[in-house]
Design a protein that fits this description.
single chain; 60 residues; mainly alpha; 2 helices; 0% strand; elongated
Length: 60
């Protein structure tokens, strides 16, 4: 993602929270938690089919 598109995405997210930076951050954290839970479910499903487990819980 380029710097310019990152700025645009940030502006959109903050605008969708009526300019509330703290609210935007909380929303992003909730979305991140949801995505991490989905990834964990995918790894669990993959493990049932003999795929190797992930080595780290960090995604960044």
């Amino acid at each position: 993602m380029s710097f310019r598109s990152s700025d645009s995405a940030i502006d959109e997210i903050v605008a969708s929270c009526n300019g509330d930076i703290r609210g935007a951050l909380k929303a992003l954290l909730l979305v991140n938690e949801h995505l991490e839970a989905e990834i964990a479910q995918l790894y669990a499903a993959a493990a049932q089919y003999g795929m190797p487990e992930r080595r780290s819980t960090a995604f960044h």
